[in-house]
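REQUEST ID: PR-0412
SUBMITTED BY: lab tech R.K.
PRIORITY: routine
TASK: structure prediction, single protein chain
INPUT:
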Amino acid sequence: MDTRAVLDHHIAAFSAGDADETLKDYTDESILITPDATHKGRQAIHAFFSDSFSGLFKPGTYDFGLDTMTIEGDVAYIVWHATCASANVPLATDTWIVRDGKIATQTLAAWIDPK
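STATUS: complete
OUTPUT:
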């Protein structure tokens, strides 16, 4: 899969709130870096998404808006916003480095404003 296909799958799986499907984009060596923690490997990344899908991004409780998407080779970058039941996310960014059809590294930063 090329970078665009991986990103499209990732966004669709995230939108569905499916941690198992989201995890298909990662390997045991993948790293997800957030302001609060670095999640290394599929188990830690799965836990991060499971928590997200049972909390702030519980399916059916938020509206997601994609503001910018840039893909250059194996790097993808998005700027997005969301209105959630318990918070507003007026600005967030993700960056992915994709290797061999899987996400090797992802960074996430979000301004989360609780309601």
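NOTES: The mean pLDDT is 96.
REVIEWED BY: pending
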